[in-house]
Amino acid sequence: MISDDGSCGRDSGSTDANSPESAQMNTISLHSFGDSCDNDDVFTIKIIELGAGTSLPGLVAAKVGADVTLTDNADRVEVLDNIQKVCDLNMLCCKVKGLTWGVWDTLMFDLHPQILLGADVLYDSNAFDDLFSTVAFLLESTPGSIFITTYHNRSGHHLIEFLMFKWGLKCLKLVDGFSFMPPDKASGLGGNIQLAEIVLDS
After folding, report:
1. From start to end residue, where is composition biased (Low complexity) (predicted)?
2. For residues 198 and 21, which has the higher predicted lDDT (pLDDT)?
């Protein structure tokens, strides 16, 4: 378990390490994510965050032991530098890479994610085609992988449906993002935010 200070050790809480509760938690942690920054165990989940920016989803995944690669546009050096600084400040063992959607460089062929994350990547309709082509390629590189993203229904819904069909993708789940929030918080927010799980349509 990742300790509060971000180090890769076990929690120093009062739970007895030999208790059934502790054994169950350790088993879930090991088989779901792994429990060490240096763990190369086959059970460790490989996660890539696209358009990471502030990288919050990827950082949380790294906190629970996933093997995380944080990516953003290769031309945005200042963003990539900031992502690395945030990882260092939180003492997290993430890889930081420049990945430009729609550009087929060597990095694209080296990534084999089990989970792709995209927190707020569907905002510029001009980038949708490059994004979905990249997502489709990365999903094809690892059978059974998924893309989890959020979508704020601004105006490009029909374009997204067309491009998903074009690149052989389908949406498995669509959840109202506000359903996770207390009613008093959700009522003060406008728009329609969805949490989507996207896979290859095969």
Report:
1. 1-16
2. 198
CATH class given for the domain over 39-200: alpha beta
The full DSSP string for 89-150 is: HTT---EEEE--TT---HHHHH---SEEEESS--S-GGGHHHHHHHHHHHHHHSTT-EEEEE
Return the closest-CA partner of residue 169 out of 148, 139, 140, 199: 199
Residue bearing tokens 């990945």:
99
Instruction: Tell me how far apart the alpha carbons of residues 152 and 190 are, in angstroms, rounded to a whole number.
Output: 10
- % residues pLDDT > 90 (the chain): 57
CA 51 to chain centre: 10
φ/ψ of 118, rounded to 5, equals -145, 100
Tokens 């920054």, residue located: 37
Q: How far is CA 69 from the centre of its chain?
A: 9
Residue recorded with tokens 């074009």 = 166
Instruction: With CA atoms as reference, report the closest residue to 69 among 121, 113, 19.
Output: 113
CB atoms within 10 A of CB 136: 20
The structure tokens listed for 11 are 């929690």
Residue with tokens 């502030």: 54
Q: Is the pLDDT of residue 186 over 50?
A: yes
Tell me the CA end-to-end span of the chain in Å, nearest whole number.
37
- pTM of the full structure: 0.76
Give residue limits of the domains in the chain: 39-200
